[in-house]
Specification:
With 103 residues, the protein is of the alpha+beta class. It contains one helix and six strands. Strands 1-2-3-4 form a four-stranded antiparallel β-sheet, with no helix packed on it. The protein has a two-stranded antiparallel ribbon with strand order 5-6.
Length: 103
Amino acid sequence: LLYNINTLEDPLLRFTEIIRWYLGQVVSGEQAIIEKNPFNPVLGETHLCWTEDDQNGVSEFIGEQVSHHPPVSAFLIRNTTQNCVICGNVGITTQFQQNAVKI
């Protein structure tokens, strides 16, 4: 699903397909039995992994803890065969209000 997005000409259709892919990841993550602990290494330590198949080539994942307080992890997913790059970061925010804490 993700690699076919590069072939679409209409920007709105590409955007809706990205949203569809993302929401599919959220739902599948909720149903899967996976490790729920955050990536929490020493600052600057990286997590590298990849998968390879004949049709799509090599897909690589690189994750790094870029801040410890607050905890922020940056990531990059790329596949040069399919001309696909996804990058972002994951972090949490805490707010203290009069009689409540929001996370």
